[in-house]
Design a protein that fits this description.
Largest sheet: 5 strands, antiparallel
Helix content: 25-40%
Number of helices: 10
Strand order of the largest sheet: 5-9-8-7-6
Distance between the termini: 24 Å
Structural class: alpha+beta
Strand content: 25-35%
Shape: globular
Length: about 325
């Protein structure tokens, strides 16, 4: 199901609500038996529950309303029950994933399909975040990884292998900093990831370290209280974000120029464009923008969706 313009009309207090509501609607319309068959996971027709393992914990997910419970274990914190990023990643896996075994090889994000397009965002959101959060705190990193039963691997100064979903694994690698060099890191993906995940899905894998930290400390984030401050709420239309947009277009001359003109007319600056032919008369267009106000992006998308050459806006990812 493609995104529509209405999907951008979410409340001011939640940048995650829009995609979450979209995916829950798609999940409710899906066939749970088809999901279970495609992923080779159990489905109980009587209770209407799918069973899926995420980060070592077994969860039961009801259909069609996506209510989540867990099988008791010693983890102490269960991200699929209250962390929106974990829930979005999981529901996308249920909708689009397939059972697939890895060959045992691991690849960088750059080597993944479309990885080059979103590499800068992945580097900032995941690689640097991991390095500067734990590059000088290897003991904390080790404790967090061991709490979720991650497997030590021989890379860098300290590294662990984590199974996200069955057979889908990542390796988190750290090199400690010193007086001369800052800490650095790398995240590798098992080579079956492209079977079930797009580049934008893999770009949120940096959030796994936050999920793991919360599991280790039994909390949902560790941000100091600001409730005593009288802070104004900024109008969502004035909030600036960079955007990653994937769309399906007709494969004919002038389409790219028309898209660029629409964006330019609405103060949207494009930093990168990649186009691939997916069918004889259809192409996939991926556009990465500079930071732009939400209201200008919404106006641009409204005009784009009215163009006959735009067949579908497949996904919109904000970088923030």
């Amino acid at each position: 199901m493609a995104f529509s313009l209405n999907d951008l009309n979410y409340e001011k207090d939640s940048k995650e609500r829009m995609p979450w509501e979209h995916y829950t609607q798609e999940f409710a319309a899906a066939d749970p038996k088809e999901i279970a068959s495609r992923l080779s996971i159990p489905y109980d027709e009587e209770t209407q529950k799918l069973t899926l393992t995420f980060l070592g914990t077994q969860y039961q997910i009801t259909w069609p309303d996506f209510e989540v419970t867990h099988t008791p274990d010693d983890k102490g914190f269960y991200p699929l029950e209250n962390m929106i990023y974990a829930r979005i990643l999981t529901i996308r896996f249920l909708l689009n994933g397939v059972k697939s075994e890895s060959s045992g090889k691991f690849k960088t994000y750059r080597e993944m399909p479309w990885g080059e397009v979103y590499l800068r965002q992945f580097d900032g959101r995941c690689i640097k975040r991991l390095a500067f959060s734990y590059g000088n705190r290897p003991g904390d990193f080790r404790a967090i990884m061991e709490h979720i039963s991650a497997i030590p691997v021989k890379h860098g100064d300290i590294a662990y292998e984590v199974e996200i979903f069955p057979e889908y694994k990542i390796q988190m690698i750290l090199w400690e900093g010193d007086e001369e060099f800052p800490p650095s890191s790398q995240i590798l993906f098992s080579d079956n990831f492209p079977v079930s995940f797009q580049a934008e899905d893999m770009a949120v894998m940096g959030d796994v370290i936050d999920v793991a930290r919360n599991m280790a400390y039994g909390c949902n984030g560790r941000i100091s209280c600001t409730c005593y401050k009288n802070l104004p709420v900024k109008d969502i239309g004035d909030v600036k974000n960079k955007f990653f947009i994937r769309m399906q277009v007709t494969n004919e001359p002038g389409v790219l120029a028309a898209v660029a003109e629409v964006f330019g007319n609405h103060k949207v600056s494009i930093t990168r464009v990649v186009q691939e032919h997916t069918q004889p008369h259809q192409a996939e267009l991926v556009i990465v923008t500079e930071s732009v106000k939400e209201k200008y992006m919404k106006q641009a998308l409204e005009e784009l969706l009215a163009l006959p050459s735009i067949l579908e806006v497949s996904s919109i990812i904000r970088e923030y």
